[in-house]
Amino acid sequence: MSYYQRHVFFCLNQRTNGEASCGDHDPQGAFDHCKSRVKQLGLAGKGGVRVNKAGCLDRCAGGPVAVVYPEAVWYSWVDQSDIDEIVERHLRDGEVVERLVLPESVGR
Ligand code: FES
């Protein structure tokens, strides 16, 4: 069994050269909100959920992005209610939130 049941990585990269980046969409706010909801729901820690910051994940055109392992499901979102849905349906209940899944074709 893996140490964490689910591991989430939020891209917090901010580009300053005019190219699209997740940093244009307040990823820190989404990260903070996710981390706090995971904690509130008692999901954090060994055998549960870990929420981590990441640098560029090379799917910048779809920003903001985060990826959930072990399912390797990529998400993008608009607001905190979307993050709540990812936390409750996927991180807690193991159900992919299809409407927020990043299309396979989205790259840098
Ligand atoms: S800037 Fe977020 S994936 Fe590249």
From TrEMBL:
Q: Matching CDD domains, A to Z?
A: TRX_Fd_family (cd02980)
Lineage, top-rank taxon, reads Bacteria
Extract the InterPro entries matched here: Thioredoxin-like_sf
Q: What is the protein named?
A: 2Fe-2S ferredoxin
UniProt organism field: Roseateles puraquae
